[in-house]
Amino acid sequence: MTAPDRFDELSAGLVAGVRARDELIGLVLLGSASEEARDRRDEWSDHDFFALTASGKGAAVRPDLSWLPDQERIVLTAREGEIGFAAVYDDGHVFEFAFSDAAELAGAVAGDASVVVDDGAGTTAALITEARARAAAADRFDAANDVRLVLVKLLIGVGRVRRGEVINGNGFIRQWAVQHLVRAIRGRFAEASTTLRDTIDPLRRFERDFPRWGADIGATLDLPIEECAYELYRMTRRVLEPGWAEFPSEAADVVAVRLGWR
Q1: Could you confirm whether domain 4-138 is CATH 3.30.460.10?
Q2: Which of 96, 111, 157, 187 shows the greatest Cβ crowding within 10 Å of its Cβ?
């Protein structure tokens, strides 16, 4: 567990590290690392952040992570794509961050965020304003389309499993079908989603907004793969179909027949 004072020390260390480098111009603490979401932190909270470089300097400065605090306690660093990084400390605390200039983060999305370092032009604040606007625009769901995709992913996934492609089939069933089911539920019952939801990842804190259905999905994921697929199918119909004219009932029947579920 990262104690509150340790968490704050690491945040302060990040601020000091960014401010000490001329080529770094901004730092944004995201999610539970931000001040506005401070009350949501628990023992599993990590540091998510954006570290901004001066314009055009991203590629040149990315190889150097010596500005991260407590260098002697870092046991692992890793790249995720071109601008994504992770670092793990000897107490298990995690940093996940984008390290780039503002142009490279032009399509970023953000929810809770605290701009703690910025340049005189307000480059970082402007980036976050735009990222929050994109996140708000994306925080909408086409439930009718998502429920169709649940059926598609289940049909393909079970087919892959029966073909012997169990790993790939698991991805379709346990990942993609579940993601679209959660999106469909959030869209169909939008009034039940609270301000605790994550505007970027609809799976985050789903159990808090929909505790019974969250528990049902969680229990279903523990089942063997074909049982898992069948129970996700049954739940999709049980939760979403009643009283909803846009539910693709005929297609759901076809999937059940094709997979021998009737």
Answers
A1: yes
A2: 157
